[in-house]
């Protein structure tokens, strides 16, 4: 095809059970423009590549597969698929998620074409864990639109598979470079922050995708130490961008949230240093957080209770 208006990209590794549904959701899009579909397959050890090759053979004018002889890791796989995108816009869907609205791309491109000061548009979404569904995670929530840099540093409210953004913005950011430099374990969150620092961001309330939670997913298949590493990276990202973009007014809020979340790891990991860090913070009367201080000072009482609650939450978790 000639240069497409949109490039859709999927990075995938060992998604044999899910990749067909992911691909079908993209191919089912109804648009008045051409789009290409870039799939970055990172030498899966299951039959993910076989499934992809079947679809690529059926849709050679749409699907392009990016791969190599050896596994390159998520960051490089993500970057090489970014570089392969030729469209004016780029949309995302990782191999274990899937799109449910056949007009998703059309709605987002229509908005971006009409609003040149916006660089990215995302949507409402649902979650699936096994045969359990949670519909419309953002229903009834007025998510921020426009200049949302401060809001995003406070917390990530964007689901990756729901995003469509300008390709020139994506290429200018080159998010793989800071990810490798800082050894962050997540690439989507810093990309949204970098995008919001450059252009406006829009939210559509339409539920257009399903985010899948399963035991081998990057952010929901972790043990407690894995959870802790993701937690640490999230706050490293927040503090990095507070400094980079001069948002020092957010530091009190970020510090408060950091220590509240750190509390669960201080208790669950039985780490004396972590507990002491929290304890010193919450002893500051200006913080006014009596309950976290109580949990730490009366640690033996809360230990068993929290371990039970945390383990139960991990089993039942249905949202990001």
TrEMBL record:
The lineage of its organism: Bacteria, Pseudomonadati, Bacteroidota, Bacteroidia, Marinilabiliales. Gene3D superfamilies: Spore Coat Polysaccharide Biosynthesis Protein SpsA, Chain A (3.90.550.10). GO terms for molecular function: hexosyltransferase activity. InterPro entries: Glyco_trans_2-like, Nucleotide-diphossugar_trans. It comes from the Bacteria. This is Glycosyl transferase. It holds the Pfam family Glycos_transf_2. It comes from Marinifilum breve. Residues 7-149 form the Glycosyltransferase 2-like domain. Keywords: Transferase.
